[in-house]
Design a protein that fits this description.
alpha+beta, Hsp33 domain, CBS domain Like, 2 domains, five-stranded antiparallel sheet, 30% strand, binds zinc ion
């Protein structure tokens, strides 16, 4: 089944919910960045959380850049998520791998660390930008996105992120969900929602049990009537980098630098941080570039 996302309201429009299955997106990120298991989990959760955050915080055409730096061995995570369901990102140290935590889970909190910040830059795509920063709650990422929504966006929310790897470290299943209380929801709905969410099994168990975002929402919000706003929204790992843009990046280095590349290596290699794609330029391409650079 392809990855997808669902947007819904529940409890008579007092609750907003978005859920996604992101297994293929997470596996593509792992494959591209050659991440070790703990780093795979951290990157997958950061990417899935970014997609969900973009879905609840932004309008069409918007992009969000999320930077998470917590002092842990992973060194930092950067995610670019778009409202259209595409996302890209990377971790500074893809080889990060830790023993399981006290609950026997992949130790994302240990890898990310909790002494630092989560920073989100919203770009509306129409000229306006703003940045919000919160201190990390635990480095487990679900908690940290929850804190961001509570403190920076001032919407009480529960962010759940899950991932399960097979024995070879490949992504067997990944996904996430954000449930938010809308203004004016009232204490009774808030209390019922809290009880419902607290009684749920771990989100990783849920994504292993249910195969669509709709089934996840139905199970997570049992007792509330769900109104689907949009479903089967495709989500994917996608990077807009191209060979042309990479060559442009080389051209910005200037004549002297390009000349020394030609003399020293006879070629240039440009690697995109976000998707780890490598672009290789030959001596003749560099010489052509040099003739065009002022
Ligand atoms: Zn790229």
């Amino acid at each position: 089944m392809p990855d997808s996302m669902i947007r819904a309201m529940a409890g008579g429009s007092r609750i907003r919910a978005v859920a996604a299955i992101t297994t293929q997106m997470a596996e593509e990120a792992r494959r591209r960045h050659h991440t070790f298991p703990t780093a795979t989990a951290a990157l997958s959760k950061a990417l899935t959380g970014g997609l969900l955050l973009s879905s609840v915080c932004q309008k069409d055409g918007g992009k969000m850049t999320i930077r998470i730096i917590g002092g842990g061995p992973i060194g930092g995570i950067v995610v670019d998520a778009c409202h259209d369901g595409t996302v890209r990102g990377y971790v500074a140290k893809p080889e990060t791998d830790l023993p399981p935590n006290a609950e026997g889970q992949l130790d994302v909190g240990g890898a990310v660390g909790s002494a630092g910040f989560l920073t989100v830059t919203h770009d509306s795509g129409r000229g306006s930008r703003y940045t919000g920063t919160v201190e990390l709650a635990s480095g487990e990422l679900g908690d940290d996105y929850t804190r961001y929504l509570a403190e920076s966006v001032q919407t009480p929310s529960a962010v759940s992120l899950g991932i399960y790897l097979d024995r070879e470290g490949k992504v067997e299943v990944a996904g996430g969900m954000i449930v938010q209380l809308m203004p004016g929801a009232g204490d009774e709905i808030a209390w019922r929602l809290e009880q419902t969410i607290q009684s749920l099994p771990s989100f990783t168990q849920m994504i292993r049990k249910y195969s669509t975002p709709y089934e996840i929402l139905k199970a997570a919000l049992s007792g509330f009537a769900i109104e689907v706003l949009m479903e089967d929204i495709p989500v994917s790992f996608s990077c807009p980098c191209t060979e042309e843009r990479a060559l442009w990046a080389v051209s910005t280095l200037g004549k002297a630098e390009i000349q020394s590349m030609i003399e020293e290596d006879g070629k240039a290699e440009v690697r995109c941080h976000f998707c780890n794609e490598e672009y290789l330029f030959s001596r003749s391409q560099l010489e052509a570039l040099l003739n065009g650079v002022q």
